[in-house]
Amino acid sequence: MKSYVTVIVVFALTVCRGTALKEGDCEVCVGVIEKLGNLLQPEEKSNVDSIEAKFREFCDTAKKQDHRFCYYVGGLEESATKIVGELSKPMSWGMPPLKICEKLMKKDAQVCDLRYEKTIDLKAVDVKKLKIRDLKKILSDFEESCDGCVEKSEFIKKVEFIRDTQLKQEL
């Protein structure tokens, strides 16, 4: 009997410890909640309805991973699940973003699987050493395309042209 109790206690502790998030985990979730917190006025931060309304507003303009997070949580019209309350209520209490993400992860583990894409610094990188996939990503980040590009050298020319024009605009 004593061994059963020990096994149950050890199992319970393992399960509880397994759901705790560390700094850097759930980066998209934490990022979206921090962005949302910055959008809210001080008087809105304690009102659940205004948090949900501002979240839906944020989701209408969200891109890439932020947009996918909005889909998972229910901030979009086409979202399959609606767990926005799991985000807005704790946020109105002043709970830290990482703890809110822990609660959301218990409802839907997908919210913590999202990661932001790593950005490529065009000033520091040698474009000729990049793969075509990375060159295409750079072009899409600048909302450009290289229609008719087949060879790597053609992609490199287009990326270098964009890099040069961007550097001139920054000056």
From TrEMBL:
<dbReference type="GO" id="GO:0005783">
    <property type="term" value="C:endoplasmic reticulum"/>
</dbReference>
<protein>
    <recommendedName>
        <fullName>Mesencephalic astrocyte-derived neurotrophic factor homolog</fullName>
    </recommendedName>
</protein>
<feature type="domain" description="ARMET N-terminal">
    <location>
        <begin position="25"/>
        <end position="120"/>
    </location>
</feature>
<dbReference type="InterPro" id="IPR036361">
    <property type="entry name" value="SAP_dom_sf"/>
</dbReference>
<dbReference type="Pfam" id="PF20145">
    <property type="entry name" value="ARMET_N"/>
</dbReference>
<dbReference type="GO" id="GO:0031175">
    <property type="term" value="P:neuron projection development"/>
</dbReference>
<comment type="similarity">
    <text>Belongs to the ARMET family.</text>
</comment>
<feature type="signal peptide">
    <location>
        <begin position="1"/>
        <end position="20"/>
    </location>
</feature>
<dbReference type="InterPro" id="IPR045333">
    <property type="entry name" value="ARMET-like"/>
</dbReference>
<dbReference type="Pfam" id="PF10208">
    <property type="entry name" value="ARMET_C"/>
</dbReference>
<keyword id="KW-0732">Signal</keyword>
<keyword id="KW-1015">Disulfide bond</keyword>
<dbReference type="InterPro" id="IPR019345">
    <property type="entry name" value="ARMET_C"/>
</dbReference>
<dbReference type="GO" id="GO:0005615">
    <property type="term" value="C:extracellular space"/>
</dbReference>
<keyword id="KW-0964">Secreted</keyword>
<feature type="domain" description="ARMET C-terminal">
    <location>
        <begin position="125"/>
        <end position="160"/>
    </location>
</feature>
<dbReference type="InterPro" id="IPR045332">
    <property type="entry name" value="ARMET_N"/>
</dbReference>
<dbReference type="GO" id="GO:0071542">
    <property type="term" value="P:dopaminergic neuron differentiation"/>
</dbReference>
